[in-house]
Write a structure and sequence with these properties.
By secondary structure, the chain is α/β, with parallel strands linked by helices. It is about 40% helix and about 20% strand. The strands form 6 sheets. It has a 7-stranded mixed beta sheet, sandwiched between helices. The chain has a 6-stranded mixed beta sheet with strand order 10-9-8-11-12-22, sandwiched between helices. The protein starts with a strand and ends with a strand. It comes from Aerolutibacter ruishenii.
Length: about 475
């Protein structure tokens, strides 16, 4: 059960503001809880407090940062079921998937705890000529300063973790704006952080309006903005001034099934179903486009159609539910409209059905026109389409025929095709032997083209949140 009301966190302290935000149970459509809602004045105070905390956070010893992160690991582990139930209610995520995300939250903080005491530098050989004899050089990485984080609704625990945990490891104070539709998980993280001895002002967690969050983008005291969400991220970047900007903006991920897939078709189908329909397709690396070699197309199509049609949909609290509600009815209507547009253009629906509120059945299409929205844009819902190809070169070209480039997957038993894909696919990551939806929390993660810039994953994020500082010593 959720609490009746959650405070926000301003400069490490809980605040029960007069203004509140209702958080809905996404399956039942009723209010589940209320959270304190910050205004522009609170956001400004958080930025000021974080700016004042820069020196204290930079001086906070690496072992102390590790201890904070390890405290979080212990507390999240102890509160794992509470976190999973909150996620199930506020995001509509099926309970099995919610528990999986809690595991990833814990993993991400554990990885960051290990990295906190491994942020090193380089020793430089400067004696390159008679002029530089007697000089020695070395670098160390120092925190950039205040970070602002804006996170989306679909992974309200782990996407927060991928910003917060590296910031603590790097020694950066931060202000976080969680998604207004799913703020509870971030506030529980704030509650746990408030139990630690982080310096005053080191963190704030503030549900607030997009208008009031403008300060997190534009304020010059902020050194780094990290945003995960939609294409509005590019507009935010244009307003961010001189600060560093990391953007993860999604995609319409593709998966290739080669003539020799290197695995049984049953295994390939199982992974495609997971990749396309896990948490109702509301993932930046959800499988949306499936390109299958013509020799396998009919068999895989038949198996995939049968598997998708059997996916159970309903109450996310039910242990057997695979397809839960989308985040709201407007999102479900949008995806439904894209499916209808594709069908009007000649696409055939192999599996799927009618929408009920924000519940949209898992949908599989074929013959989707390349001009339609579903082919070109990010669906962010439980829909995928299948298309045959004759030559591997054609499959590579079709994957690249997209404004996005986050991750791509492929099933192949040919190492030369795997290497060609790695060389030529215009994406941030290529996953061979699995779907593009695979992610481990220590790997570099991010995209190219309209999918964003920069990389997350704990070590990559720490590199963004620190900068090298050179020391030169003349010894003789």
């Amino acid at each position: 059960m959720l609490k009746k009301r959650y405070p926000y966190y301003l400069a490490n302290r809980p605040v029960q503001a007069n203004d509140h935000l209702d958080v809905l149970d996404k399956y039942r459509g009723k209010r589940a809880t209320r959270v304190a809602f910050a205004d522009a004045a609170a956001v400004r105070k958080a930025i000021v407090a974080a700016h004042r905390a820069r020196d204290a956070m930079a001086a906070f010893p690496p072992d102390a940062r590790r201890d904070v992160l390890e405290h979080c690991v212990r507390r999240f582990t102890a509160r794992a079921e509470e976190l999973a139930q909150a996620l199930c209610i506020e995001a509509g995520k099926p309970i099995k998937d919610a528990r999986g995300e809690v595991t990833r939250l814990i993993d991400t903080f554990r990885i960051a705890a290990g990295e906190a005491t491994r942020i090193g530098g380089d020793v430089l050989e400067l004696q390159l000529s008679p002029r530089t004899r007697g000089y020695r050089g070395m670098t160390r990485r120092v925190p950039v300063g205040v970070c602002s984080f804006i996170t989306p609704f679909n992974f309200p625990l782990n996407l927060v973790a991928h910003k917060v945990a590296p910031a603590i490891a790097a020694g950066c104070p931060f202000v976080l704006k969680p998604a207004a539709k799913t703020p509870v998980g971030a506030l529980i993280i704030g509650e746990v952080l408030a139990e630690t001895d982080l310096p005053k002002g080191a963190f704030s967690v503030l549900p607030c309006s997009n208008e009031d969050a403008a300060l997190l983008v534009e304020d010059e005291r902020i050194a780094l903005l990290s945003f995960t969400g939609g294409l509005v991220g590019w507009e935010l970047k244009s307003r961010a001034g001189k600060k560093k900007v990391t953007l993860e903006l999604g995609g319409n991920a593709a998966c290739i099934v080669d003539e020799d897939p290197g695995a049984s078709l049953d295994h390939v189908v199982q992974r495609l179903v997971f990749g396309a329909y896990y948490q109702s397709g509301q993932s930046c690396i959800s499988v949306q486009r499936i390109y299958v070699h013509a020799s396998l197309h009919d068999r895989l199509r038949r198996k995939l159609k049968a598997a998708v049609a059997k996916l159970p949909m309903g109450d996310p609290r039910d242990e057997n539910t695979f397809i839960g509600p989308m985040i709201d009815e407007a999102a479900a209507k949008r995806v439904e409209a894209w499916i209808d547009e594709a069908r009007d253009g000649g696409a055939k629906r192999l599996a799927g059905g009618k929408r009920t509120g924000n519940l949209l059945p898992a949908t599989l299409l074929e013959r989707v026109p390349r001009s339609c929205t579903l082919y070109r844009e990010e669906a962010f819902g439980p829909v995928a389409f299948i298309e045959p190809f004759e030559h591997f070169e054609d499959a590579i070209a079709r994957v690249n025929d997209s404004r996005f480039g986050l991750q791509a997957g492929m099933f192949t038993g040919r190492i030369d095709h795997a290497m060609q894909a790695w060389d030529r696919l215009e994406v941030g990551g290529v996953v061979v032997g699995d779907v593009p939806s695979f992610r481990v929390d220590n790997m570099p993660y991010g995209g190219v083209k309209d999918s964003g810039q920069g990389r997350e994953g704990v070590r990559s994020a720490i590199e963004d949140m620190t900068e090298p500082r050179l020391l030169v010593i003349r010894t003789g």
